[in-house]
Design brief:
By secondary structure, this protein is α/β, with parallel strands linked by helices. It has 12 helices and 7 strands. The strands form 2 sheets. Strands 5-4-1-6-7 form a 5-stranded parallel sheet, sandwiched between helices. Helix 2 runs antiparallel to helix 3, helix 3 crosses helix 4 and helix 4 crosses helix 6. It is elongated, with a radius of gyration of 18 Å.
Length: 216
């Protein structure tokens, strides 16, 4: 085990693709078929093309993830663009998130073992309010020592500012933190700041990573 006085003190996890795994990552590809994700599901339910749906949410969705626009205003704009009630848009989003993602129970078990072993555990995730409500149940995430979500702090990965916000909350230098994310571009600024990093592919790959194994 790494000495907690000199080594890693906190393990930081992304949500989408790490703590919440996509259920439909691999689909048999046919002409006209695409990965069945959140937006594909909603477009199908609204009986519009994927491109039309994406045009209708355009920058407002990105702004909501970064906390530049409220949940209510985001839903109002998307509702207006699609001629569907705000309540229905929110309902479809939540159903879609829950259909496309499932909690990574195996990883959560290991995460809480780390906490019981003396490590701090934290979350650093890009979400907008509706995805946060759907993918981050309070009963699970209240166990984390710190939870930093983009829509709450006004910055998103890979903006270095959101990593600095987390470090300030943890009151730790980056070299004392291990960050686990499923996107390479989110790990680049973390590494530059001094975080130890692991690119997540699946549980088996993570649990066999030397950095992870040294936490036990």
């Amino acid at each position: 085990m790494i000495s907690k006085k000199r080594g890693i003190k906190t393990v930081v996890f992304d949500v989408g693709g790490v703590l919440a795994l996509g259920k439909n990552q691999e689909i048999i590809k046919r002409k006209g078929n695409r990965t069945f994700g959140v937006h594909q599901y909603i477009a199908r339910k609204l009986n519009v093309s994927l491109d039309q749906w994406l045009d209708s949410i355009d920058s407002v969705y990105a702004d909501a993830i970064e906390g530049k626009i409220s949940k209510e205003k985001t839903l109002k704009i998307i509702s207006r663009n699609n001629h569907v009630s705000m309540e229905e848009i929110e309902r479809l989003f939540k159903i879609s998130y829950r259909k496309q993602f499932e909690q990574n129970k195996q990883l959560f078990e290991q995460v809480f073992k780390l906490k019981h072993g003396g490590y701090k555990i934290a979350v650093l995730s890009d979400q907008w309010p509706v995805s946060k409500e759907a993918l981050m149940p309070k009963k699970l995430y209240k166990e984390f020592d710190e939870v930093v979500v983009s829509c709450d702090v006004g910055a998103r990965k890979p903006n270095p500012e959101i990593y600095k916000i987390l470090l300030k909350k943890l009151n730790l230098p980056a070299k004392k933190c291990l960050f686990i994310d499923n996107q390479k571009w989110n790990l680049v600024p973390a590494k530059k700041l001094g975080f130890k990093i692991i690119l997540f592919k699946d549980n088996k790959q993570l649990f066999s990573n030397p950095l992870w194994m040294r936490l036990k």
